[in-house]
Queue: 3 jobs
Job 1
Amino acid sequence: MLTKVLHVDLTRYRYWVEDRRDLFEEWIGGTGVAVKLMRENMDPKVDAFDEESTIVFAVGPLNAAYPLASKTVAMFKSPLTGNLGESHAGGRTSTSIANAGYGAIVIRGKSKKPVYIVIDNDRVYFRDARVLWGIEDSLIVARIIAENEGGRGTRSVMRIGGAGERLVRYACVTTETYRHFGRLGLGAVLGSKKVKAIVVMGRGSRKIKDRKAYREIYDEIFKLATESDAMKKYHLLGTAVNVKPLNEKKGLPVKNLKATSFEYAEELSGEKMAEIIGRRVACSHCPVACIHIATLRMPYENEPYFYKTLMLSYDYEPIYALGTMLGMKSREDFLKVLYKVEAYALDAMTTGVCLAWATEALERGIISEKETIVKLEFGNSDAYAEAVKYIIHQPNEFYEVLAQGVEKAAEVYGGKEFALAFGGNEMPGYHTGYAAHIGYSIGLRHSHLDNAGYSLDQKIDSYPKPEELVERLMKEEQWRQILSSLVVCFFARGIYKPDVVCRALKPVGIEIDEDGLKKMGEKIYFEKLRLKKDMGFDASKLRVPDRIFETETPHGKLDRSYMERALRYFAEVVEKV
């Protein structure tokens, strides 16, 4: 069982380790432990960019032990929403942290100069990163650090790009080459602390209490992972397989959700993208390999007949946000914009929603080309690629505001009715019905992955009372607190069912039954909700954009009164917590 917590103080360039068996025995790991460490180490009222603002990286008891237990939880104060930030990433990070012997890493303070942190098992080094500060391409930063530090295989490099340095509120953190702590602005928090990267090298291994029982349950999980139809789907086409079905059902957001079907959807589909796959990549301890890497051939500037080949990871969400939401007509146009977003290390979803709002605002005359500098038009990839650059460099007040998210932009310039955000977090890629939009609103991260309302919409024929739907979504989110405390990939939720989880925990030293698991999920959920409230969350102020009620879903147009009744009920639940 992983019970050690590494504390890193950037202000004093110090570090120390605590054994927190008490914490991990009560809260499992991952999300559960991260919530408690945030509570212990940070005043919830501090600003996201304050010196005392804290970041927690946490793994769980299944990481570096079982297939598909491949995620790391990052928890922080979000500069985008001003509330709780939580993001999960795959890659090698969780294995590296676990093999270094830690269940969690707590980072606080602020460095006086740019640094990158190296965690090498029980030693921590603060490397001078002044020469790296100003390199905006996160891919280049990773190559330089990898050459300096070595340690391939068990090494993970988490780093920011130009977006994090410039404190863009939706800057992400890239880990390895193709995975991200994407949503809610972790990259900006690291940028405010003058941290360019965090390198973790784990040279140990997990200790198993009962090797025979471990082998049996490991083999069972591996077999389920490699033979299940759902996992095969993720391997073959990944989540990009969703593009065509959502388009056919009229649940695909197009051009700032002015429509839900798109004549060029086939060009952006998983099937079409598969024609230019360069390779597939897997996270550590994952046999599925759902990470799809597309090749994009681009000419060098002023060099005829010379081309560079770029390798870009994609899945459904970037295709939605930077593809259909921006009216892209080809996969190449989509990938050109994705390349800029990846290089600067921006969250793809928020960037796409911000640019879609700006395009419609320009169409309506709410803003002019004086603000946007380039003429933003749906389908114009060159203009969007330039606009991404302006979000980073912020040459005028408009882009300074847009770098704070679509809610802020609409507050300053107008157009709030078509500014697509829920709880301050930009809309995910599903306009499938009530469950999706209520799910975004009441989810504690305001994410589609909190409670999978979009999935429920596609399975349901008729909706229950709003209160019943809220209860159902909350129950699903409570179970997902267990998955994100273990920490396993949500794609594997059909494999890691309660009975399997209980049997997997036993060989690593944790005895718990199914009823105990469910109670633990509920306990973590409400503890996280309390922390969110202490950070200023007020459920009575949740806003649903007007556009949601104007555009058809697979269930027809949504009734505002149903949505409002659901949110009132959720606000009553929150009030009692």
Job 2
Amino acid sequence: MYKSVITTLILLAGYALSAQHKDDSSAAKPLTGYVDMHCHPRGDLAYGTQLFYGAPYGDISVALGSCKEDHSKNILRAQLAKQTETLNSAAWKDSKEGYPNFVTWPSWCSTLHQQMWVDWIERAHKEGGLNIMCALAVSNHCIGSAAKCTGPLDDEQVMLNLIQGIKDLVASTSFMEIALTPQDVRRIVASGKLAVILGSEMDNIGNFYSPQDNYKANFNPTPSNEQIKAELDKLWDLGLRYIFPVHLMNTVFGGTALGMSTLNVANKFTTGVEFIPEQVNTKETGIAFHLEHPGVGLNAVAKAFMPLLLPKNVNPGKKSNYTVWDTLPGYGHRNSIGLTERGKFAINYMMKKGFLIDIDHMSDKMCNAVLDMAVANDYPVNSGHNGPRGNAGAEGGRTLKQYAQLKQLGGMAGLGHGANASDFVKTYHTVAQIMGNTHMAIGTDVGGFSALPQRDTSIHLIYDNTFTRCQTGTRSWDINTDGVAHYGLWPDYIRSWTLAGMPAQEMQTFMSSAEQFTEMWEKCERRKGEVK
């Protein structure tokens, strides 16, 4: 995700292939280890290629060297990067130098520097039990445009670059292999390797949108069903298996979950129109979020800079560009857009192809409609990096009924990592009770403009000759002081859960998620031929 960058933009401008296989695999030794259902290792190829810094492999002195060229050369981009990084920690100060000292980055609070260096991925695999990783393409046209980046910006080309980039990363190693089928997963993991599944969390597949910056590329905001089918076929042929029909913007398939007012700017940039919310009773839905005008809080300097960053009709500094929405006491806002007719066709075709579908980021209405389709077809879907909505949240959080449907279908619930180990353990326990302590994994969102877990001051992890600190170059990291600074510290974070009170039964469930994920995929393969 990249919610923090949109916020900064506002602030700156201040189971198997057949029943026979199921019978065969059921006698096989179950897979061990866990699944990361959500990560982004190639941010360096997204957002116009100059906002997110650092490649995940290659000559480390180049791949993770100084970020000065990207983060200092353009004044507007430099300020955007600076303000984005300081959102999560006011103490952030970018030394720019990178390898070998890594004085300021990677850091738990840094969202614009590479945190998935290949050695760190290998440590997560060999020391932490990571055996399946969903590596997702993600980018945002609006952010790249506002940052004045010169690389490709349109979603279609960026997605193609990202998919190839992930393939190149995997091919550069001996411990990873791309899985195209659940049989591949079983073979790869059984051989001691990390199975990588290609996926997309792009805002608009197939360039099915109409950006407001007059960018020179082919866009189609009103695709036919045949064009949608052709695009999904193309992605499947490229090896993509995990898919988000919706990300943070409304799409031709349906509405996004409202949860941050500043995202209204990116939505208008992408679609030409603003979000249109509807009021719902907070007590009945758990939705308390209020959609505000995205220009709230802009000072005079920010308003002056805004025309340099965004098209005139998207500028949040102009009050008339966005509606001021009211709500009754005890009510919140959710997206009025649910699953569209094009969306129904796309979801149905995704099931027929055998895609692994993630319902995260869908509006409440779209999510419920997709779950109804999944239940009608007994086809598993997933919520890969989320948590419970609670009593006063936004529509993107999962409800008890939604979790019950995921459980019924055999889908996976991947949890967001939480602020620290103790927070994750509490959330895991809550969801484990709902899911029957099964089919639960994690969605780390590393590389997706999301801060990672901070240090947990209530516990202390011991490093010794059986478990040593991660070191790269001249820098070593200690989770007790550094938090989860990068992907290589997930083994440290997982060890911390026991210290934070995670029962052995719940840890066993987590460390069985590779098997449960594979069973979910095998069921998708069995059911795809029966989808109506």
Job 3
Amino acid sequence: MLTELRVRDLATIADVTLYLGPGLNVLTGETGAGKSMLVDALALLLGERAASGSVRPGAAKSIVEGAFEGLDPSTRRAVESLGLDAEEGRIVVRREISAEARSRAWVNGSPTTASVLGQLGALLVDLHGQHETQSLLRTDAQRDILDAFAHAEPERAAVAEGFAAVAELRAEETSLAAHRDEVRRRADYLRHVVREIDQARLQAGEDEALQLEARRLSQAGALSEQATRIVDAIESGEGNALGALGMADRALGSLEKIDPEVAAWREMLDSAYTNLSELARQAQAYADEVEENPERLAEVERRRDVIFRLTGKYGASIDAVLATRNESAAELDLLDTADVDLRALAARRAAAEMALRAAAEALSAKRCEAGERLARGVTRLLPRLGLPGGRLEVTFTPLPEPAQHGQESVQFEVQLNVGLDAKPLARVASGGELSRLMLALKVVLARHDAIASLVFDEVDQGIGGEVGAQVGAALAEVAERHQVLVITHLPQIAARADQHLVVSKQPRGGIATSDVQLIHGEDRVHEIARMLGDTEGDAARRHAQALLRTERTERRRK
């Protein structure tokens, strides 16, 4: 619930803090004192668009801060789904509005946007009256309220799961059919790809081997000449390497006779002789093998041309070309299996659609029964709230096929006067009538509404006397399960307050300034007497005391 609301430099408000508690919080005061400005401040805190000219004269910006405590687990989860930290069930919201109507906002010290504030506000406060943030005006909210009233959460979940299953199967079926049709259009091309690549009989790594062979064949004379020069350097001619090693061998033999320790060199000398002999042998064999072969070179180049053409068309390497071949073959295979797979998918989809329809029928049955009960309950309350000809209807419009939320749209319609047609709730013009209608709904829905705090402005517009007392009783009933903040001119409502706050306005520094005070005891008697029209008269004071006594007596009885 909202435990604290601080407003600074907003219109006539210099610096005001409201400390609110559970139950019924009533805000009273003279007309023009600034009561509705506090509701405007709360609306700003909940994401309402800031208007230019709202900053108090002489101030650079308006600041609104609010603290919400005691969030229940489901609300905390919803808050955290917005990327916000609930910090053990406590939320502190701050919003600043500059004189140029630029806005900044924070939640628990972290910057956020007005859009997120709007989503957060919808979870924390339901505001009724002059502002257009009433959740009950949205048809999706009406549907959700009806389902909560009907305890239809399992049926809703079944419909949502069934809809998701049908949607997934339809998407899979559409995708497979489209793929099949695409393959059919490209079948001749795909067959050509497979045939052309198969005919080439490509081997992995073949291009690299052919490149090396082509290089050898094109340079055969030079390669043979260089290999022969290696043989000559090792074996032939004066001063060849093997001859030099023979001289070294004889010298080492003489050394060994004098100094046996040099015998260790023998292994290195023998190894050098062996390696050079082997090198000469291999170089000679290479020189003998390498020969110019124009026919083979032409054949290699033709093969390289084939590979170059295929890699230019189907991939940058032989592996890529072979992968293209396999993909084309797999697509052709789809033509053989797609129709069978589509028939299987169609059967699964039909079964899923049947299950969805059954789930939607079960949800519809609960909605219809609950809609009648909800309409009866609200209609019974409306005459007590000053709407003698009022009647609520819950209407259902069938959808062409079941959707994620069921097979019908849900809408609350209301008839406010006898003989008039029922209209959608969102088209009810009078703020007072709308607020009282909302109040009647809240009384009936009090056990099901998850929003902790409710704010009513203009709920007493155009009523008085016994109807005012009934409105007060209805507000008190809702306040047994929710925190309620109501702005009122009616003493019958003010007398029922758990917390009674009075707004007053006095000049300060040459500027009209609003203040708020929490009152008790004799101050309440004085304020209610003022609301009755005579702060000094004994009759008004006695009437005020009687209203307060009646309220205390009713509470003791409960």
